[in-house]
Amino acid sequence: MSGHTTELSDQHSIDTPELVAIEFPLAGIGSRFLALAVDYLIQSIAIVAIVLFVFLLPGTSGLGRTVAASPKWAAAILILSVFLLQWGYFTLFEAFRNGQTPGKRLVHLRVIQQTGRPIGLFESMTRNLLRAIDSLPSGYFVGALCILLTRRQQRLGDLAAGTLVVREAETERWSAGAGAARMVTAGVFEPKAETPTGRSRQIPADALARLSPSDLQLIDSFLERRLDLPFEVASNLSQKLAATLSRKMGFAIPPAMSSDTFLEQAAAGVRELSS
Q: Which of the listed residues 57, 214, 232, 256 has the most CB atoms within 10 Å of its CB?
């Protein structure tokens, strides 16, 4: 990837249906433990807040009287709170916040499937249920050992769930090229593309004529599934696919044209020539 030079052992490469390899920089053990430390700090603060709320603040309420009268209730509330924070915290954040807990977001890490797609609730539950085993006997010894010994730097939870922890690539905002306007929000882009006409299209006909029906199929495959991909993956794939096709066409993509706009115009142009 342009602008980054990383060791091959720190990369996970995926061959996409567009025949373009996408490389994900794998997160190392240091950055993962830093993210974990941040998450544990947040959890500790939350537990202290729960203890203060249960035992101090509602002293005159029904809950406060119940807790004061029955230490078993107090123990049950604390055990339930700790369980929900330790298991639900990671599971829910990773499942519904694009693979990121607050700690991972701060350190720019993300959990993804080995296919490059975002993880869902099932993958998040699986990898976090095994967090208890990864933390044995203490200090995440088992998990750290697995990360060091596995080729893709996976702990037991990752191996069971088929997930990876990757570093987020530095991504540029999508520039609004001719025929398209985009809004970037929380790592997701929503295209509002207009169909390029012959007058607005910037790709000459002789360059479009060098593209084959199979090239058009590759472009369509990407354009149809780009919204299902994480933003940085879609951006990287779009740029690589555009660069490959522009070389075949002998056409230099104008600086003001985004790779996504180039692909949209190329697809529309090939259809127009074949009609």
A: 232
Residues 57-90: pLDDT tens digits? 555 455 555 555 566 777 777 788 878 888 899 9
DSSP, collapsed to helix, strand or coil, labels residue 63 as helix
Q: Could you tell me which residues come within 8 angstroms of residue 183 by beta carbon, excluding any fewer than 6 positions away? A: 189, 190, 192
Could you tell me the two tokens for 157? 């939870």
- How far, in Å, CA of 38 to CA of 34, rounded? 6
Residues in the chain: 275
Residue 241 φ then ψ, to 5°: -65, -40
pTM: 0.60
Separation CA 154–CA 93 (nearest Å): 19
3-class secondary structure, 216: helix
Measured between alpha carbons, how far is 78 from 51 in angstroms, rounded to an integer?
A: 7
**In which residue are the tokens 């990864």 written?**
134
Is residue 112 within 8 A of residue 24, CB to CB? The reply is yes
